[in-house]
Specification:
The chain has 299 residues and is of the alpha/beta class. The chain has one domain: Aldolase class I (TIM Barrel, Alpha-Beta Barrel), CATH 3.20.20. It has an eight-stranded parallel beta barrel with strand order 1-2-3-4-5-6-7-8, surrounded by six helices. It is globular, with a radius of gyration of 17 Å. The two termini are 20 Å apart. The model has no long low-confidence stretch (mean pLDDT 96). The structure holds 3-hydroxy-3-methylglutaryl-coenzyme A and magnesium ion. Magnesium ion binds next to loops.
């Protein structure tokens, strides 16, 4: 059985790095991720560069990549201004994002949830009329850094709204890494009552070490698409204390051990992980990367 991986390290990972990573390093990282067999790579974001200076070079990064057969590069866009910048690079896919909880939405994109709907509706409509595919994210589904527990109804409302706008898939986010497998079972079991599993993805952060266990729980609920980040890079600039996404190396290792196909080569990922770890000058959280580099991993 095939499981799809959306590599978000160059965006969700790097957006959290304080020191600006040179554009050519970002491009080389994405090329290495592509060479490892990843087919969906979120390369950057066209948000307000004053909010996320690390990704101010979004256009340069995308313009530095050449089209590869079967590979989709995408970027986050928060509004029409972001979409216009993305369009100028010839991008074929963008992602819109909002939160299930009011305070995280406000801190992250400076709007209430109800103010956000018409903005994203316009972005999705315009992007689709330009022939782009649009993915959606719902953040803070499993907990909010400001409000704590988030009632499932709020996540359902935002998920439904994004799907109605015309996004092809919604990534269900544990932005601050608080979810446990039981909650993942309950959440996806509730969501798939209204939505087919093919239109949902799991986006787990590993802040409390439950990331891969949450993937296993979501797999049991029929979810077949997961976001992950090379080396376990990342966090969320508007979610204090959030650690990185689950690492792509750890995810691929676990899935292939479960007999699931990802089409991704672990040695290629190790090369990409070692590269960005060296460039950032610190050890990244991925356990499989560590084991691979220590030569202890049998694969
Ligand atoms: P705002 O300041 O309220 O925007 O930001 P505004 O509409 O009032 O405009 C203010 C100025 O910004 C204007 O310029 C605009 O042109 C400019 P001025 O007239 O003052 O010279 N501007 C832009 N410039 C370039 N690109 C743009 C853009 N938009 C406005 N796109 C905004 C509102 C949404 C833009 C801002 O809040 C923002 O950029 N937020 C993004 C924050 C972010 O990137 N957070 C991290 C990503 S989300 C995440 O990590 C979660 C996720 O991984 C899932 C999970 O983990 O659960 C997806
Ligand atoms: Mg995230």
């Amino acid at each position: 059985m095939q499981v799809h991986i959306v590599e978000v390290g160059p965006r969700d990972g790097l957006q959290n790095e304080k020191e600006i990573v040179p554009t050519d390093v970002k491009i080389e990282l994405i090329q290495k991720l592509t060479a490892a067999g990843l087919k969906r790579i979120e390369a950057t974001s066209f948000v307000n560069p004053k909010w996320i200076p690390q990704l101010a070079d979004a256009a340069e990064v995308l313009n530095g990549l050449s089209a590869q057969p079967g590979v989709t590069y995408s970027a986050l866009v928060p509004n029409l201004r972001g979409l216009e910048r993305a369009r100028e690079t010839g991008l074929k896919e963008v992602a819109v994002f909002m939160s299930a909880s009011e305070s995280h939405n406000q801190k992250n994109i400076n709007k209430t949830i109800d103010e956000t709907f018409p903005v994203l509706e316009e972005v999705v409509r315009e992007a689709r009329s330009l022939g782009m595919r649009v993915r959606g994210y719902v953040s803070t589904v499993f907990g909010c850094p400001y409000e704590g527990e988030v009632p499932l109804d709020k996540s359902r409302r935002v998920t439904d709204a994004l799907l109605k706008m015309g996004v092809y898939e919604v990534s269900i986010g544990d932005t601050i890494g608080v979810a446990t497998p039981r909650q993942v079972h309950e959440t996806f079991a509730a969501l798939v009552k209204d939505v087919t599993t093919e239109r949902l993805a799991g986006h787990f952060h590993d802040t409390r070490g439950t990331g891969l266990a949450n993937v296993a729980a979501a797999l049991q609920e029929g979810i077949r698409t997961f976001d992950s980040s090379i080396g376990g890079l990342g966090g969320c600039p508007y979610a204090p204390g959030a650690a990185g996404n689950i690492s792509t190396e750890d995810l691929v290792y676990m899935l292939s051990g479960m007999g699931l196909e990802t089409g991704v080569d672990l040695d290629g990922l190790t090369e990409a992980g070692a590269y960005i770890q060296h460039q950032l000058g610190r050890e990244l959280p991925s356990k499989v990367l560590k084991a691979q580099l220590a030569g202890k991993c049998p694969n």
